[in-house]
Amino acid sequence: MLRHPAGDGFVSLRAKATDTSGNTVEQTVIRAYRIAARH
């Protein structure tokens, strides 16, 4: 479950993966989507 904080703002996402050989990759998506406060 994903819980957003109250209020307006943007969400950034980060993913990281490692394979069995130890190779890694990391990706960050800045401002992936916007949260609009419920009124």
Describe the structure.
Helices cover 0% and strands 56% of the residues. It contains no helices and 2 strands. The two termini are 23 Å apart. The protein is mostly beta strands and 39 residues long. A two-stranded antiparallel ribbon has the order 1-2.
- Which bin fits the share of residues in helices? under 10%
Q: Report the average pLDDT across residues.
A: 91
Q: For the report, how would you describe the main beta sheet?
A: 2 strands, antiparallel
Q: Numbering strands along the chain, what is their spatial order in the largest sheet?
A: 1-2
- What is the CA–CA distance across the termini? 23 Å
Taken in chain order, the helices and strands follow as EE
Structural class: mainly beta
Question: How much of the polypeptide forms β-strand, as a percent range?
Answer: over 45%
Sum up the overall morphology in one term: elongated
Strand segment tally: 2
Radius of gyration: 15 Å
Counting DSSP H or I runs of 4 or more residues, the number of helices is: 0
Low-pLDDT stretches: none
